[in-house]
Amino acid sequence: MATPVDPPNGIRSEGKHYYSMWQTLFEIDSKYVPIKPIGRGAYGIVCSSVNKETNEKVAIKKIQNAFENRVDALRTLRELKLLRHLHHENVIALKDIMMPVHRSSFKDVYLVYELMDTDLHQIIKSSQALSNDHCQYFLFQLLRGLKYLHSANILHRDLKPGNLLINANCDLKICDFGLARTNCSKNQFMTEYVVTRWYRAPELLLCCDNYGTSIDVWSVGCIFAELLGRKPIFPGSECLNQLKLIINILGSQKEEDIEFIDNPKAKKYIKSLSYSPGAPFLRLYPNAHPLAIDLLAKMLVFDPTKRISVSEALKHPYMAPLYDSNCDPPAVIPIDLDIDEDLGEEMIREMMWKEMLHYHPESAMENAGFFHIL
User: Which reaction does it catalyse (predicted)?
Assistant: First the structure.
């Protein structure tokens, strides 16, 4: 549970109160009552909370020393800018960003999200039985949320079970947009830092320069296979091993299926792999619905130009009981997320501050009045 504590320097900032959770200090707005810590990750500690003004349950994520690593700071900024524009029932909602006391020197960032119960990774590794209806409903919601993102010109680029939040009645929301990019971003390079390897599309493993929305479809296919089999389909130990596992299951590729590879060394490597006849998905997942197997096979296609699109996947017969194209509006406008990768700490901090002001118009007015007096 959260333990109330005194402020570290003995000076209590107006509108804030202080709690200790997992040996970490939380300096949060007084309207939020922390309940208990619920998660710890590479980017901070998350606690459940209640907004006393609205009685709404929320999750508060503290990103400690947010500017210590410039790449991580850019990742946080990217998520803030994106989530302000994204509004879909299958995408996590960012409810608030707490205003720090000092504009030019704050180090920690507190993000307030809608509260969810668990994530798909926890469900897959649990002993809970997953019926065809469960798999179908989870996949449907993931595809719906992804179609919305793609209509907004957004590639998520890091879809995996841990980034899909679930609540008690099986509602699913996509989260973690720190690696997302607009489809037309100028800097389209990929590094080992980007995209969890097990869910990484072949074109990324092969360092192809051009890629698009089909990278997310591949990740969805890997997640769907994991739902059906309760274990990762391609758990590679490193990049080359990942490619070998893919070829072992999909089978050796024909010449026309590797034409998309623009890196001669990468193409040579694929050709050098021992022949594999492949492993039929029906044999891997004998209890799966035949239509589920058919859709999975259309997602996990080596050549991205031949992979099914999200829109096509939603219209697949497996999705027919759930999908209604009339209830599937696209994003209002495409989003431009052109952030300079070379931004320094001070500029990133200033841009984060401006994002925070969108959630606190009263602070924006105070700042405007202050500058008017100057």
Answer: L-threonyl-[protein] + ATP = O-phospho-L-threonyl-[protein] + ADP + H(+); L-seryl-[protein] + ATP = O-phospho-L-seryl-[protein] + ADP + H(+)
Q: Where are the alpha helices (DSSP H) in the chain?
A: 70-85, 120-125, 132-151, 202-205, 214-229, 239-250, 264-272, 281-284, 290-299, 310-314, 345-357, 361-373
Note whether 39 and 175 are same-domain residues: no
Binding residues for ATP: 62
Give the residue among 159, 171, 146 at the shortest CA–CA distance from 331.
146
- Distant-in-sequence, close-in-space partners of 77: CB < 8 Å, separation ≥ 6: 339, 348, 351, 352, 355
- Looking up residue 31, the CATH number of its domain turns out to be 3.30.200.20
Condensed to tens digits (0 to 9), the pLDDT of residues 314-358 reads 999 999 999 988 777 777 776 766 677 788 999 999 999 999 999
- The residue range of the domain holding 132 is 118-319
Same domain assignment for residues 127 and 52: no
Annotated binding site: 62
286 shares its domain with 204: yes
Treating both helix axes as pointing N-terminal to C-terminal, what angle do 214-229 and 290-299 enclose, rounded to 10 degrees? 140
Round the average pLDDT of the chain to a whole number and report it: 90
How many angstroms separate the CA atoms of 261 and 319, rounded? Answer: 32
Full-model pTM: 0.91
CA 205 to chain centre: 19
Give catalytic residues, as residue numbers. 158
Distance, CA of 16 to CA of 28 (rounded, Å): 5
User: Are 55 and 105 in a shared domain?
Assistant: yes
Tens digit of each residue's pLDDT (9 = 90 or more) over 111-148: 999 999 999 999 999 999 999 999 999 999 999 999 99
pLDDT value at position 227? 98
Q: Cβ distance 347 to 73 under 8 Å? A: no
Domain co-membership, 138 together with 276: yes
